[in-house]
TrEMBL record:
<dbReference type="Pfam" id="PF01503">
    <property type="entry name" value="PRA-PH"/>
</dbReference>
<keyword id="KW-0547">Nucleotide-binding</keyword>
<dbReference type="GO" id="GO:0005737">
    <property type="term" value="C:cytoplasm"/>
</dbReference>
<dbReference type="GO" id="GO:0004636">
    <property type="term" value="F:phosphoribosyl-ATP diphosphatase activity"/>
</dbReference>
<dbReference type="InterPro" id="IPR008179">
    <property type="entry name" value="HisE"/>
</dbReference>
<keyword id="KW-0028">Amino-acid biosynthesis</keyword>
<keyword id="KW-0963">Cytoplasm</keyword>
<dbReference type="GO" id="GO:0000105">
    <property type="term" value="P:L-histidine biosynthetic process"/>
</dbReference>
<keyword id="KW-0067">ATP-binding</keyword>
<dbReference type="GO" id="GO:0005524">
    <property type="term" value="F:ATP binding"/>
</dbReference>
<comment type="pathway">
    <text>Amino-acid biosynthesis; L-histidine biosynthesis; L-histidine from 5-phospho-alpha-D-ribose 1-diphosphate: step 2/9.</text>
</comment>
<dbReference type="InterPro" id="IPR021130">
    <property type="entry name" value="PRib-ATP_PPHydrolase-like"/>
</dbReference>
<keyword id="KW-0368">Histidine biosynthesis</keyword>
<comment type="similarity">
    <text>Belongs to the PRA-PH family.</text>
</comment>
<protein>
    <recommendedName>
        <fullName>Phosphoribosyl-ATP pyrophosphatase</fullName>
        <ecNumber>3.6.1.31</ecNumber>
    </recommendedName>
</protein>
<keyword id="KW-0378">Hydrolase</keyword>
Length: 110
C-alpha cells in the first residue's frame, strides 16, 4: 500500500518540478500556464472518461483513464498548493470509521 502511494508522491514531485518550465516541452507546464480553471476542466473530463470506462469498457481502459484522472488531480493539487500528504493523512484518519457511522455523526452535529 505504502508503495502504491509512493508512485503518487513521486509523480507529485515531478509535477512540481515542471512549474515555470517551457510549456512547449512539458504537458504539465502547459497545464500550469493555462491556469486553474483549465486544470480543473481537464480533471473533470478525465473523471467522466473514467466513469465511461467503468460502465462500458474493460479493466485496461479503466486503469488507463484512472491514471489520466489521478495525474490531472495531482496537477490540480499542485496548483492549489495542496500536498498529497494532507490527503493521505485524512484518508488514514478515516480508516476504520464506517462511512455510514460518519454520516450519522454529521447529521447529529447539524
Ligand atoms: N501521467 C501523466 C499524464 N497522463 C496524461 N497526460 C497527458 O494528458 C494529455 C491529455 O490529452 P488531451 O488531448 O485530453 O489534452 P490536451 O492535449 O491538453 O487537449 P485540450 O483538451 O487542452 O485541447 C496528453 O497529452 C497526455 O500525454 C500526462 N502527462 C504527463 N504525465 C506524467 O507527468 C510527467 C511529466 O510530463 P511532462 O510535464 O509532459 O514532462 C510524465 O513523465 C508522466 O509521468
Amino acid at each position: 500500500m505504502a508503495q502504491d502511494v509512493e508512485i503518487l508522491n513521486e509523480l507529485y514531485k515531478v509535477i512540481l518540478s515542471r512549474r515555470g518550465t517551457d510549456p512547449d516541452k512539458s504537458y504539465t507546464a502547459k497545464l500550469f500556464s493555462r491556469g486553474r480553471g483549465k486544470i480543473a476542466q481537464k480533471f473533470g473530463e478525465e473523471s467522466v472518461e473514467t466513469i465511461v470506462a467503468a460502465l462500458s469498457e474493460g479493466r485496461d481502459e479503466l486503469a488507463a483513464e484512472s491514471a489520466d484522472m489521478l495525474y490531472h488531480l495531482l496537477v490540480l493539487w499542485a496548483d492549489c498548493g495542496l500536498e498529497p500528504g494532507k490527503v493521505w493523512a485524512e484518508l488514514e484518519r478515516r480508516l476504520g470509521t464506517s462511512g455510514i457511522d460518519e454520516k450519522k455523526s454529521r447529521a447529529k452535529k447539524s
